[in-house]
Batch of 2 targets.
Target 1
Amino acid sequence: MSVPHLYRQLQVQLSQWICPQDQRHLQVFCENVAAILQAQSACLSHWLPYLSHRECKARSHMERLNYFVHNPKITAETFYFPMLQQFLNSWEGMAMTLTLDTSMLWDQYCLIEICLVWGGRSIPLGQTVLEHGSATVGFEDYCPVLETTLRLLPTECHVTLLADRGFEHGALIRWLREHQWSWSIRAKSDLNITLSNGQTAAVANLLPQEGEAYLFRKVKVLQDIECHLATAHLALASEAWAVLSDVPPSLQTFEVYGQRFGGIEPHFKDYKSAAFELIRSHLRDPQALNCLLMLLAPATLIAIAVAVVVVGEGRRKMLDWHSQRGLSFLQLGLREIERLCYQRLPIPLLATLPRKSPPSATASLKKRTQIEQQIEFSRVTVFST
């Protein structure tokens, strides 16, 4: 039986950057990524129709797939990172916004990810799965992901890290300072803040009235960490915001932190249900889940790269009926790959990601209004020395 079209193309392109000690691993890697892109599923059994060129019985296929995802030699360092660095090789000296967050899988495993915010979605950089029954993790749990991401980034990038409540750790902020990363971290309501006048109060007592914002300059948290605090209370939000940052506070502080919501949370949804159905996977082992997620990451990156070509060539309306781009780059790329496979056409050459992040998709007037809406405060109060 002839080699499947997509698998053959991926092997040719990815072999430029991925060089494992055993070339058979690269073959299986490309087979599996091609199967994920066509099945649009993280469930191993759903890949079987796209592996039929091997002329094996289904049970033999499943045994091979299970062996692959449990093989300790199949790592992101070998297979994903060289590809990712190729896609980011033109980003030297650029401003990069990263998000750090966690997501639970079956209330048993915790996925920790650092992603690049790009095009209204997130591109995975570093990720790991721990057998951990809570989305709250300690610095020692996610420090390896930070170190991995640091090694991946192009040189002289200006990095801003966004993180939700639960990451207001002194060790994290000191790490960020050491590596000269800027940061914005949402604070819990019970965190104690030492103001510039020496008074100490919990965040809950520093929240403004509805429609107002407070900007506190030069505060201290976690005993000795100097930073800034911005709090706001808007009717359209379910609760008040309190954001710690190394940058002097302004209304821009909320806009910067708000990029987290349009980035990593839709990305987790893509993994779990909207694109790859990770929740339907039957894997229940941290090593196997790490390998599976390592396969989902390049599949995501390839689909996004294909969508960039579609948009750049002005062919978006062949796949997306909205007047403006209503599909995420991931969904647009998956549809284009499906079309190319159906017509037995070649996928485009995979290239670097554009340095300028395109605007978010707007699939509805409501979504467009949310993105374009300008937030106004009835009063902004600045507290400084």
Target 2
Amino acid sequence: MTATPGELLAQRPALRPGTLLSPALLHGPATVHLIKEPEGGAAFEVGAKEYFLISRLDGSRSLAEIGEEYADTFGRRLAAAHWRRLLQLLGARRLLAGAPPRPAPATPPGTPFSGTLLRGTLRLVADADATTARLHRLLRPALRAAVLLPLAGLMVAMEVLLATHLPELAADTWWLCRRPVALIAVFTLLWLSTALHELAHGVSARHYGGTVSEIGLRWRLPMAVMYCTVDNYRYLRTRWHQLAVAGAGAFANLLFLLPFLAWWAALPEGDPTRRVLSGLLLLGSLQALVNLLPLPPLDGYTMLGHTLRVSGLAPESGRFLRLCLSDRPAAAAYPRRARVVYLSYGVGSALLVLSLVAALATGLSFLLVH
């Protein structure tokens, strides 16, 4: 039996515990919010008005009370039919309290391996979230500002020192490239640094309330790297927490280099071990710092998206620039903030790529000459 409008507005529905709602995100010309069901369900976008209603479904306020708040904010009242459509949507997605959880997908047969020998993935742990939880408990005493800030200061000092020795580091790295055994040792250490990079994302996510769904090995021969899939980072409470999770990998890369810097500094110039360490320090620093560039799929791009509260920054910037060339009225219809963000990123990222290409060409010319 369908409830009358009065009965409907007297209801006090609540979202299921564990439902996640993101802060406002710019996506194209619109401002949207992401909503994700518990137990790892898929996320979907809603507009600002729908978010206003959904975020207030806490079981303490009736639909009539929420409707009054909506009318005060947006200047119009909602009909009972609108409420019915909204509750039907949330019910279909199992987002209302009392709804049964979505059935767990059947475990696929076979091994955690997927793909081919040339390209594929291998899940390394059965429960990635539990694994990172154990790591987090072990490392938690060190995840305090009193520890991390001095370490960050040491990393900055390390990069300044290495910058002052850049000619030596470049020459030693070129020397290293002609010694295969030493070069393999350096790349093995850099691979280990990459693994620590991924685990750092997972531990940081656990520290700030996120979850980790998978830890594994991904390869496209001859390259193979570890990966750590972090979930729910878009729903963390503050922008700072999101940035910390995204930047944790580069932090781990630079932290990994600090003991090698001390070893390098203790050796005289020209010492073969120092020259090998020079290559490790230069390549390791490039590995960390390049990853902070705001280009997809690097962590710096993710950090910039969190900072600006933008979803799909690169593709939406490309879309906006194409509109500027082909449909100026449509581009002009974008809100001012969207126009500024997309134009700035589109032009800035193009200039950055050109600068990187020029720097790479200059570096190769230097190495060939010397």
